[in-house]
Amino acid sequence: MTTHTAEPDAEVLLELFTDATRIKLFDEKYRALMKAGHIGGMYYSPRGQEFAAVSVAQHLRTDDYVVTIYRGLHDQIAKGVPLRELWAEYLGKAAGTCKGKGGPMHVTAPDHGLMVTTGVVGSGLPIATGLGLSAQLRGTDQVTVCNFGDGASNIGAFHESLNLASVWQLPVVFVCQNNQFAEYTPLLEGTSVRHIADRAAGYSMPGVTVDGEDPVAVWRAAGEAIDRARRGEGPTLLEVDTFRYHGHVMGDMQKYMPKELLEAKMAADPVPRFRARLIADGISAEADLRAIEDRAEAEVEDAADFALHAELPDVSELMTDVYAPEVAVR
Ligand SMILES: Cc1ncc(C[n+]2csc(CCOP(=O)(O)OP(=O)(O)O)c2C)c(N)n1
């Protein structure tokens, strides 16, 4: 966590690169294991969207809140969820953040401020609004970051949440990770605006669109929005223009995706581009970045190995942690 200043220093830039690398390598390993048949289930790759998560979360404290969606690996890692517990949860193992009862679509790790991962499109926004209200009522300066996709901005809960967050001036930053597609539908075939941030005007809050391929631009815009929320000056709608490289869900053959568009976007992959920028700007040397990548790779290998060999929850755990303890109502 860094206090927002106009420009990120070298330490911040390297933190951004480190976390983006951890996400990229986790994702690559996870998809490889799925392809080889070692992992089943659903997986929604966030490759390409790394900086929409790390450049935002870099401004957050552990006790700040994050809400994310099924395509949430990058947000979960960026918020500081340890890789072993995270990977174990993805595999439904007892050592996971939710003892294996959440799975990849419902990862929760409140100790790290990751409050919920949702599978129902748009359902995270009212929860984030409630988290913002909770911080306001308790008089803390905690900020909630709510991540969602462009498709979610067409759901009623988006509009209701932005409205109330504005009326009550809640400390929530609504981060729309606009990857240009809602499942298999291109943005403009299902959405009335080119920029989701334009919708902020209807709710009297700042609406900002930022290039998600530029980690520093995202860092600056997120810093401003988060500082504003922390000062008690209300919510912001921050739209991060980004792209996803591996389809909606693992197995999606992307028949709807223009080949040239995908190729052009992948050629502009922000992770290697940021790496080259760090060297060109004299922030870091090749060997130092290689060392960061080697450490991240070792961490990912360790987490994968840990999770693959971890125990499934015991059948006696079936009904524990499912319902909250009964509260007496007078
Ligand atoms: C309420 C609801 N409607 C439909 C779906 C099916 N669905 C799952 S993901 C998705 C697309 C959402 O797109 P977007 O919000 O842009 O997020 P992205 O997957 O692109 O990150 C849809 C329609 C759902 N999960 N929930």
Walkthrough of the structure:
Helices cover 42% and strands 12% of the residues. The termini are far apart. The chain has helices spanning 10-35, 50-57, 73-78, 83-90, 124-138, 156-167, 187-190, 215-230, 259-267, 270-280, 286-309, and strands at 65-69, 114-118, 144-149, 172-178, 181-182, 185-186, 207-211, 236-241. The chain has 330 residues and is α/β, with parallel strands linked by helices. Helix 1 crosses helix 2 (50-57). Thiamine diphosphate (TPP) is lined by residues 71, 119-121, 148-152, 179, 181-183, 248.
Short description:
With about 325 residues, the protein is α/β, with parallel strands linked by helices. The protein has one domain: 3-Layer(aba) Sandwich (Rossmann fold), CATH 3.40.50.970. It is built from 11 helices and 8 strands.
CATH class category name = Alpha Beta
Uncertain stretches of 5 or more adjacent residues: none
Order of helices and strands: HHEHHEHEHEEEHEHEHHH
The name CATH uses for the topology is: Rossmann fold
Shape: globular
Please give the alpha-carbon distance between the first and last residues: 43 Å
Radius of gyration: 19 Å
User: Helical proportion?
Assistant: 40-55%
Query: At the fourth CATH level, what is the homologous superfamily?
Result: Thiamin diphosphate (ThDP)-binding fold, Pyr/PP domains
SSE-based structural type:
alpha/beta
The largest sheet, given as strand count, sense and whether it forms a barrel, is: 6 strands, parallel
Compute the number of helices. 11
Spatially, the strands of the biggest sheet line up as: 2-1-3-4-8-7
